[in-house]
Amino acid sequence: MRALVYTQANEVQLQDRPPPELVPGEVVLKIEAVGICGSDMHAWHGHDPRRQPGLVLGHEFVGRIEQSAAPGFAVGTRFTGNPLITCGTCEYCVQGRNNLCANRTMVGMTRPGAFAEYMSIPAASLIAMPQDLSARAAALTEPAATAWHAVNLVLRALARPIHEGRVLVIGGGAIGMLAALLLRHLGVRRVVLAELNPLRRDAVAAHAQCEAIDPRIAPLADSSFDVVIDAVGAKATRFQAFAAIKPGGVIMHVGLQDWSSEIDMRKLTLAEITLLGTYTYTTADLRATVDALASGAFGDLSWVEERSLQEGQQAFLDLDQGRCASAKVLLRP
């Protein structure tokens, strides 16, 4: 089979690989579409020691069962899936918080991913979906569920309904774009998205119908937002988030571009700021997101770009160099 293999920093190559072996309890999927995630970009840069050269990346996928060794999972059925392979027995799994599973492994990190014609996965990780759901929508389940999970954590922490407030989203990548789309669906009228890339700002303004700004040109007023969602997670955006948040507000930290930096602990304390972190999604989030995508809650998704698997290296280059207006590129094997 053809697979896009991470070979060294800043390089993926299309190679011939043996097809995955079918083992009990698992299925082999014929991949229809797979998204390039920010974590795939991080690995492509050589910045993720968990993802070593020789690995097939890719964990945002939709596919059709080609082979099955799991009762109840019929050949020909289409699924998306949870790339986090969890144990089901630890304290977090039994609480329904399996994104925090102490024993989790992951597609595209500890086992070959979906940048290939075929991929194996435990049947327990599959997420049912309408069989007529477009491949474009289904492949967005994973990143959309990340936004879904983050926004729902914010909703639990707010003192007032979110549609009453003003929300800042930092970063116009896939998570920022999907968060903005979800916020608009929830009735938030005052959404501002800060993004440096002019191509992405135009896409956000057109499709999420919110104000898209370049914070270098239009600085954000201090203490002016009830919610800030940092979908970048750089040192500069953390400072930006703390400056922009109002007393009593909620900061949701999603991105992890920089792993550590100082934060304004004085403002956090004296202004009673709630600072939340989030990691991926639960299985319940994934199922809810499939329903939301099927109902059009995230819009028509016309901003998503599709390319062939053999164009994978060029897609990574274009994303890295800011030449791509779309916040999400899907590869089609």
Provide a quick synopsis of the model.
The chain is an alpha/beta fold and 333 residues long. It contains 10 helices and 18 strands. It has 2 domains: 2-140 and 304-332, Quinone Oxidoreductase, Chain A, domain 1; 144-277, NAD(P)-binding Rossmann-like Domain (Rossmann fold, 3-Layer(aba) Sandwich), CATH 3.40.50.720.
CATH fold-level name of the largest domain: Quinone Oxidoreductase, Chain A, domain 1
Task: Kindly report the name of the CATH homologous superfamily of the largest domain.
Answer: Medium-chain alcohol dehydrogenases, catalytic domain
Number of strands: 18
Helix content: 25-40%
Quick check: average pLDDT?
A: 96
What's the overall geometry? globular
State the domain count: 2
- CATH architectural arrangement of the largest domain: Alpha-Beta Complex
Main sheet attributes: strand count, strand direction, barrel closure? 7 strands, mixed
Describe the overall structure.
By secondary structure, this protein is an alpha/beta fold. It folds into two domains: 2-140 and 304-332, Medium-chain alcohol dehydrogenases, catalytic domain (Quinone Oxidoreductase, Chain A, domain 1), CATH 3.90.180.10; 144-277, NAD(P)-binding Rossmann-like Domain (Rossmann fold), CATH 3.40.50.720. The protein contains ten helices and 18 strands. It has helices at residues 38-44, 91-94, 135-139, 141-157, 174-185, 198-207, 235-244, 265-270, 283-295, 312-320; strands spanning 2-8, 11-16, 26-35, 55-56, 60-68, 78-81, 84-85, 105-106, 118-122, 126-127, 166-170, 190-194, 211-213, 225-230, 245-253, 274-277, 305-308, 329-332. The strands form four sheets. Strands 3, 5, 6, 9, 10, 17 and 18 form a seven-stranded mixed β-sheet that branches. Strand 1 and strand 2 form a beta hairpin. The longest helix has 17 residues, at 141-157. It is globular. 45% of the residues are buried. The mean pLDDT is 96.
